UniProtKB/TrEMBL annotation:
Pfam families recorded: Aldo_ket_red
BP GO annotations: alkaloid biosynthetic process
GO molecular function: oxidoreductase activity
Name the record gives this protein: NADP-dependent oxidoreductase domain-containing protein
Entry keyword annotation includes Manganese: no
Organism for this UniProt entry: Brassica campestris
Length: 316
């Protein structure tokens, strides 16, 4: 098997380097242009979600590239996600996503968060009264399994699920998740969660692999860290390349978002870097900084779960 892919439990391979398409401005034309650039550079893994507002633009760009003969559909790996207000009907939600994207199927469909919102809620940071009191997702997962049976997707998985929530899901799942997508980088290494996922043949996919610089919840702490910088200097690489290669060295795919062509090329060159045991040991000794998404959301809202920080407090 190629070194730039991982094999999922369903048999499909997932490219280790993925392009994120979240765009706060929901800029359609910029997204379409960036995806075309990414395909030409060699990206084959694309990540979106209903709440990102980029499904239509990504689908348009992929459709154009396929029609131009630039790439074949079977060579592209596309992930989207079930938004929390659609837990009552994953089949209809995925059917709408496919219609929006102009695709016949997704390669990967994830439950975006292990929480339920009332139908119709479409804000990424919900209000307290918009949460459903029923926090169980057994019926949701049954709907996800049905999506798989119907051929609407090739694999199903979860996102932002802690170790405890993975175990809870495995207790009733007929089909185990192929993927768990979580925030993961050298300053939030997800060691416990990675062990749990590995033991249950669940691939970990890391979003914000550079620490989310430029996002409201993100930080420059990863790429500005002196240890990361020193390892980069040693390998004649950039700190971003070191952070990305670290994630891939742990067997994870990494979802990095940049619409800048030169940075896309820089990020792709992370595949060529070889970190040695000393590099990995230095990174594993870094003090973790779990402030990113969790604390940002706690400062924005409360919920029936005491706080959204509970998602992290049971050790995601």
């Amino acid at each position: 098997m190629r070194s730039d892919v991982a094999r999922l439990r369903c048999g499909k391979t997932i490219p280790l380097l993925g392009m994120g398409t979240y765009c706060p401005q929901k800029d359609r034309e910029s997204t379409i242009s960036a995806v075309h650039q990414a395909i030409k550079i060699g990206y084959r893994h694309f990540d979106t979600a209903k709440i990102y507002g980029s499904e239509e633009a990504l689908g348009t760009a992929l459709g154009q590239a396929i029609s131009y003969g630039t790439v074949q559909r079977e060579d592209i790996f596309v992930t989207s996600k079930l938004w929390s207000s659609d837990h009552h009907d994953p089949i209809s939600a995925l059917t709408q996503t496919l219609k929006t994207m102009g695709l016949e199927y997704l390669d990967n469909y994830l439950v975006h968060w292990p929480i339920k919102l009332k139908p119709g809620v479409s804000e990424p940071v919900p209000k307290e009264e918009e949460f459903e009191k029923d926090v169980g997702i057994e019926e949701t997962w049954q709907g996800m399994e049905r999506c798989l049976e119907m051929g609407l997707c090739r694999s199903i998985g979860v996102s932002n699920f802690s170790s405890k929530k993975i175990y809870d899901l495995l207790d009733f799942a007929s089909v185990s998740p192929s993927v768990n997508q979580v925030e993961m980088h050298p300053l939030w290494r997800q060691s416990k969660l990675r062990k749990v996922c590995e033991a249950n043949n669940i691939h970990v996919s890391g979003y914000s692999p550079l620490g989310g610089p430029g996002n409201r919840w993100g930080s420059m702490a990863v790429i500005e860290h002196p240890v990361i910088k020193s390892i980069a200097l040693k390998h004649n690489a950039t700190p971003a390349q070191v952070a990305l290669r670290w994630g891939m060295s742990k067997g994870a795919s990494v979802i990095v978002k940049s619409f800048n062509g030169e940075r896309m090329r820089e990020n792709k060159r992370a595949l060529d870097i070889k970190l040695d045991d000393q590099d990995l040991s230095f990174i594993d000794q870094l003090e973790e900084w779990k402030i990113m998404r969790g604390d940002f959301l706690v400062n924005q809202t409360t919920s029936p779960y005491k706080s959204i920080k509970q998602l992290w407090d049971d050790e995601i």
